Each structure stands twice: as C-alpha cells, then as structure tokens.
Amino acid sequence: MPPRRVIGIDAGGTKLLGGVVDQELVVHHRVRRQWRGADRQETLDIFVDAVEEVRAAAPDVDAVGFGLPALVEAETGVSTWSNHLPIDGVPFRDLLSERLGLPVVVDNDANAAVLAEHRHGAARGADHAVLVALGTGIGGGLILGGRLYRGARGFGGELGHMVVDHDGEDCPGDCPGRGCLEVLASGTAIGRAGEAAAAEEPDSTLGRRLAGGGEITGGLVTELAHDGDEQSREVLAGVGERLGAGLTGLVNTLDPEVVVVGGGAGAAGELLLAPARAVVAKRALPPIAELVRIVPTHFGVESGMLGAALIALEEA
Amino acid sequence: MPPRRVIGIDAGGTKLLGGVVDQELVVHHRVRRQWRGADRQETLDIFVDAVEEVRAAAPDVDAVGFGLPALVEAETGVSTWSNHLPIDGVPFRDLLSERLGLPVVVDNDANAAVLAEHRHGAARGADHAVLVALGTGIGGGLILGGRLYRGARGFGGELGHMVVDHDGEDCPGDCPGRGCLEVLASGTAIGRAGEAAAAEEPDSTLGRRLAGGGEITGGLVTELAHDGDEQSREVLAGVGERLGAGLTGLVNTLDPEVVVVGGGAGAAGELLLAPARAVVAKRALPPIAELVRIVPTHFGVESGMLGAALIALEEA
After folding, report:
1. Among A177, A193, B108, B114, which is most exposed with the fewest C-beta within 10 angstroms?
2. How high is the pLDDT of residue A74?
3. A-B interface: how many C-beta pairs under 8 angstroms?
4. Record: fold of B5-113+302-315
5. Residues of B in contact with A83 (CB under 8 A)
6. Given this model, what pLDDT does residue A3 score?
7. Does domain A125-297 have CATH number 3.30.420.40?
C-alpha cells in the first residue's frame, strides 16, 4: 500500500508555500503563490487555486492542512484575526472543506512550524520548545510539557507581539500594540533598519542602492551581508540583538530547552542568531541561559508547510 | 479526627510570612520576619526560627512548604539562584528537612501563590492563568492547561524578567538583564517613581517628605494615593501603564483567561490595576484582549503562604 499523502499549505504575510507531503514527510510537489494585496475573496481563491494545482499532480491526497498567519480558534477552525491577511472572521476550516471537497484542518502557521520541528526537526526530544518565525511579521509557536500549547482558545504563542519596547513604535498591520517584537526583529524590520543605514551612509552599497531608487528589503540586506558587506552585517547584528532581548524575556518566562528561529529571515543564519544568542547568554537569568539552546530550524522555510501536513495527517 | 495541618512559609525579597494552615486553608497562627541584610547562614536561621515559632503553637503540624523568591530546581528542591536572597545553590529542601526534622517541600514563591489562587481564589476555574506578584521584585507563576507550569527544570514563570524595555535600565539585584518588568513595575519601582516625582515637585506631599529626609517607598506612595494625593495617584498610574505593557506581551504569548496581580504592591488595587487593564485592552491583540480578565488576588498577600502550605499538604 502506498503511504498516505496530504497537502500542507503554509500561508505567510506575503506568500504561500504548499506541497504534497507523505507520512515520511517527503515533499512530492510544491506550489507557491503571492498575495500582492489580494482582498478577502481573492485571498481565499488563491488558497483554493494553490490546493487544486498540487492536487492535480497528486489526486490521491485525502486531506489538507493550512497554517495561517492568524489567530485560529482551535475548536472551530475560524480565522478570528490576522495581522497580515484579510481573513478576519472567516470560518476557514468549514469554508475550504466545502470548496475543496476534502477534510481540512487549520492552525496558526507557527504552531504548525513548531510541531514539525518538535516531531522531526531542531526541537526533537525537547519537552519545552519555542519557535519564532521571522518573516513579514513574526509568528510564534510553543511546545510546553511535550505538547503544542494553544492557550485558552488557540490564540497563544503570538510571540511577535511580546512587548519589548514598552514606549516604542506602533506595530505595523492591524496590531494595536506598540514596541512589539515584530516591530524590531521581523524580516520587514531588517529591511527598515537597512533603509535607515542606507540613508545614513549614501556611499555604501546599501546607500547607493537606495539612492538609485531600489527597495531595501530584508532579503537584500541578508544577501549583501552573506557577500561580506560590513554595513549589512551590522544591520543584521543590531536586529539580532533586539531579537535577543525579546528571547531573553521569553526564556525567563518559559525555561525551554531550545529556541528555534525560522521564517524567511532565518536565511540570515548565524549573522542574526549569534548576536541574539550572545544577548540571551548575557542577559537571561543565569541558570536559564545556561541550558537554553538557540538554533536555526531543521526544515528551513518548509517547517510550516510540513507542520500543516502533519496536523492534517494526524487530525483530518 | 482533626484536620491535617502544615506550615506554609512565603519568603519575599524583604520579608517572610508564615502560618499554620489546615486542609480547609484556615490559618491558625502567623509569623513574620524581615531579612534586613542577613547573610546566608542568618537567612537560613531565620527560616528555621520562624518555623519553630509557629510549630511551638501547633506541634501537630506534619510538614512544611516553602515558597522562595528563587529559581528552585523542581526535582531536587535546590535553590539554584535568587535575585533577592543569599541562598544560591542551597540544597534547601534537604537542609531544612534535616534541621526541622519534618518533611519539607520547596517551590518558587509565585508558583505557590498562583496555585493557591487557582485552586481556591481569583483564578479558580481557569485552565490558563497567570499571576504576577509585585513586591521588592516581581515574581510570576503560570497555570497552563490546568497545571502549574514549571518549564524544563522548574525555573519557568520568571515574569519579572520579561524584557519590556530592550534598551532600558539595569535590573536591580543579581539579574544580569536590562529593562526587565521588575525594573518598571515592582513595589520598589513604585518607590523609585515616587522619588523621581518628589524631586520634580518639591512642594508636593511627596516632595516635602523627600526634602525632610524621609524615604519614598512604594508603600508610602500607595498610602498617599489612597488618601487622595493626586501626584501619588499619577505615579501609580504610570507604573500601572508599564505593568500593562508587560502584561500585553504576556497575554499575547499565553492567551490566558485571567491575570491575577498580587504581592505587597497589590495593595494599590485599582489605582494600579485600572491603568494596566486599560493598556492591555488597547494594545493586546483584540481577540485576546477581549477574553482576558485582570484581577486582584483573592488571598491578598497570603496567596504565597497558602500556596506553600497547599504544596506541603499535597506533596509532603
């Protein structure tokens, strides 16, 4: 009998990544989409379209798991609130199940990611693990006492909205907060910090790019930093230190064995992680700092997709 | 058969409160001590002395529970690290059990407090509850999924060391952090904010007190605020807002039903809680803010003592 296969869809603030995933977590077909300012109906159509694309290649799939950048009500599968997509109040599970004619499970994107990393990745064997996914925003997922932690209604783990600068800047998107970690250490924040650095030094590589009308994104800063650009490395180090401040409070709160850092901005690797790790080592309560490991994801940007598939395999 | 009775001891950063507690949580005898700069040996002697005092009045007690302002290793009962008392590395459970000739259980002070509030107090019925104890420092305790959350080794729940001002002031005591909640919203922080306000307005009640050589403590500010002193009320409101910023990140992280605010500075009541509640209502992710209640302790400053007794009743 061939292994059972499902579709896992990871939706971020900017793009969607999906695939056909089997019980061994092998990915057979991948699909990508970008939202590009889609409204609610268009966004839902893109989800359906992405699923249908991979389903055409794998008609044997028997369920779909979605990870959404949203507060997902655990019991109902309703996307209650999202800082990034126009899907507030959408009864996502029931709606997509009806449109697709398949069993559907829905969870928060970073919940899915931490599950994959806990079962088979960088947090394997840890009973207490934290994942932060640095992308357009910052998602978070918690494994506490060996299990996915959801909070009272499934809204827990919004680590991008820990307040690390109590009198700080307004959080972007629909979050009514200020000084959230998402303001300081997301992929978007890397781009903003890069832009500020570019404006300060017009003769630098970043500065010339900005002067030439180019957009300074987190991806560009990361690419230049990997190529050895000192200013871009400093930008990443500064963001890494702010990430470290947020993680310091988090590890003091949860005493986890491991913090896994993923998301698109995870591509910065040690250029971001080493400064974050140094801040935690210096500033967290010493017996907590001593234990905790801060590591990259095992599955890279695919943690969320694999986790969504895992939830579908287990719950659908 | 008379109900079983134990001794509960709650040790804070400045003082100790203990009592004989029966299975109905009735307190029969109370004892109080202050540390006043005691060194390690003196501190341990004060613990023993306090227990012996109440034991003399209740020779039938059969166990002692201690809540310590320390990271307590869950399995061994070792006080691994404390920001406030010189008891780092003390094998507290075994040492006190030997000196007292009684079974002893040891836990973090705020873990004890949240347990009492969860079982019989302000967090009753909540599966996800948070307690912050505002005193000399800030202690924290978590009930997650209906159970006391300890983290990987018992060090979890150090909510006073969430970072809410990533580039902020050094945390007092032995914490190597900066901008911890403890810097901004403890009883000590109320005193410091009061002193700053006094220095700014020498003609105010606080100002005259300071000019006269009096110490501006959190307790004094709270007392004056309750008496209607506007400046003291503003001081409490400012601290309450900073507390609210910290709680905003915490509720976004954990999606709890209830946050219980206790400790000595809980005496400020609504003068502190109302501004904190307003900040959470405004700045937390809306579906999370909508659910969460922010309330005072049911047992006031006795939560920790009762919780320590509960742990002794259940585990010793």
Report:
1. A193
2. 85
3. 189
4. Nucleotidyltransferase; domain 5 (3.30.420)
5. 285
6. 83
7. yes
